[in-house]
Design brief:
- The complex is a heterodimer of chains A (122) and B (109).
- Chain A is mainly beta.
- The longest helix of chain A has 4 residues.
- Chain A is globular and about 40 Å long.
- By secondary structure, chain B is an all-beta fold.
- Chain B is built from no helices and eleven strands.
- In chain B, a hairpin with a 3-residue loop joins strand 5 and strand 6.
- Chain B is globular, with a radius of gyration of 13 Å.
- The termini of chain B are far apart.
- Chains A and B meet through strand 5 and strand 9 of A and strand 5 and strand 10 of B.
Chain lengths: 122, 109
C-alpha cells in the first residue's frame, strides 16, 4: 500500500522559493497506476489543488499557480517535489502530497501524506 | 474554473441522527465528484468517488448521490467519529483544474 510523507522547510522568506519533497513508499513513482499531486490548505480555508506529475514526468498545473510552480520526479529516491517561486504571505498553508490508484479510484485523492505546515515570514 | 459551493456551512446533529450535505458545481462535472472527511490536524480522507462509490473501508452509513451539478452526501445514524469537516471536489476539467468546495462542518447538537 502506497504511503506518502512530506518534508521541507517550515519557514520561507517572502519572494523566495518554497521547496517541498514527498517521499513515496509501497510502490514506485514510475508506476503508471498513479498521479502524484500537491494540494494545499491555508488556515481556515478550502483545499487548493496545485498540480500533478505523471510517472512519465508529464505535468498538469492549476492555472492559479502555473506561472510559478514546478513539480518534478526523482526516480532514484522515489520522491516527487514541489517548487513554488515568489512566495508571499498568501502562500502560507499546510501542504499535502496526495495520490490515488487510477484503476480503482480514478483521479480522486485516495492517499494523502500527513501534511507539512509552511509559514512565509521574514 | 468550476466553482464548487456547499451547504449548509455548519450542520448541528445529535448522535444517532442522519445528516444530508449538499454540493453544487457551477457547471456540469458529470459524476466526477468526490467527498472527503477531514478532522482537525489531519489530512482529508476519501469517502466517496465517482459521486456514489464508497472508498475502501468506508462504512455503509456514508452514501453519495447526484450527477451534473447537484450532489448529496448522506450520513445515516451519525457516530461520534463522524463529527468533522466534509469537502466535495470535482475532477472533471480537462486540462485538469480540480477544485474543492468550502466545506461543511458537522458538529454535535
Amino acid at each position: 500500500q502506497v504511503q506518502l510523507e512530506e518534508s521541507g522547510p517550515g519557514l520561507v522568506k517572502p519572494s523566495q522559493t518554497l521547496s517541498l519533497t514527498c517521499n513515496v513508499s509501497g510502490d514506485s513513482v514510475r508506476s503508471a497506476s498513479y498521479f502524484w499531486n500537491w494540494i494545499r490548505q491555508p488556515a481556515g480555508k478550502r483545499l487548493e489543488w496545485i498540480g500533478r506529475i505523471y510517472s512519465s514526468g508529464g505535468t498538469d498545473y492549476s492555472p492559479s499557480f502555473k506561472s510559478r510552480v514546478l513539480i518534478s520526479l526523482d526516480t532514484s529516491t522515489n520522491q516527487f517535489s514541489l517548487r513554488l517561486s515568489s512566495v508571499t504571505a498568501a502562500d502560507a498553508a499546510v501542504y499535502y502530497c496526495a495520490s490515488g490508484h487510477i484503476v480503482t479510484t480514478g483521479e480522486a485523492f485516495a492517499i494523502w501524506g500527513r501534511g507539512t505546515m509552511v509559514t512565509v515570514s521574514s | 474554473e468550476i466553482v464548487m459551493t456547499q451547504s449548509p456551512a455548519t450542520l448541528s446533529v445529535s448522535p444517532g441522527e442522519g445528516a444530508t450535505l449538499s454540493c453544487r458545481a457551477s457547471q456540469s462535472v458529470s459524476s466526477n465528484l468526490a467527498w472527503y472527511q477531514q478532522k482537525p490536524g489531519q489530512a482529508p480522507r476519501l469517502l466517496i468517488y465517482g459521486a456514489s462509490t464508497r472508498a475502501a473501508g468506508i462504512p455503509p452509513r456514508f452514501s453519495g448521490s447526484g450527477s451534473g451539478t447537484e450532489f448529496t452526501l448522506s450520513i445515516s445514524s451519525l457516530q461520534s467519529e463522524d463529527f468533522a469537516f466534509y469537502y466535495c471536489q470535482q475532477y472533471h476539467n480537462w486540462p485538469p483544474a480540480f477544485t474543492f468546495g468550502p466545506g461543511t462542518k458537522v458538529d454535535i447538537k
